[in-house]
Structure formats: C-alpha cells, structure tokens
Design a protein that fits this description.
The protein contains three helices and two strands. By secondary structure, it is α+β, with helices and mostly antiparallel strands. The protein has one domain. It has a two-stranded antiparallel sheet. Strand 1 and strand 2 form a beta hairpin. It is flat and about 65 Å long. The protein starts with a helix and ends in a 26-residue tail after the last strand. The relative contact order is 0.07.
Length: 107
Amino acid sequence: MEYLDFFDEELKRQCELGLSENKQIAILLIVVTLIGIAGHILQVLACWTPVLRWMRDVYVDSYRADLYLNGKIEENFVYVITESGKYRMLYRNWQPPLSTEKLDTRI
C-alpha cells in the first residue's frame, strides 16, 4: 500500500501547486511543440548555413517514402555527391525472407 500512498501524496502535492491534468497536458504539448520547432529550425540552418554546407560532401537531396495498404514501404533517396571517388556504399538486398526460425543458408 505504500506504493499507492506515494501516488496519493504526489497527486495532492500537484493539486496544491495548481497542476491539474489539463495544465500538465497543456505543458506537455507546449514542450513537444517547442522541441519540434527547434528541430525544424536546426534542420533549416544546417541546410542553408554556408559554414555547414562546405562540410557536406554527401547529402540527401530528397527523400520519399510510400506506404501501401498491405504494409509494404518503398523508400527512395536521392543523394548528392560533390567529390567523386571519395565515398563508397554498401548495398544490401532487402528481399530475403525474414524468420524467427533458423533458415537453411546452404548454397
């Protein structure tokens, strides 16, 4: 019962401070919104600040994700590479089946 007593005391303390559920939800929404806005501002600054652009030899120019009703997702990335021959990529085939059981991998 100590566990429940702790929550009763915490609820009383919050009520004394004037933090009702509505105020807590409003505070939470405001904080989440501010975090989202700050993230968007940082992303825009990273794309358009000349100081940061010279550091970007490879970057994603555009991204598109299509989600189908059957749960399939198709992603398309368009990369811009400013220096040829400097970067390598590892390609992975995402078509092999997934399983929670051991698969026969003999060739």
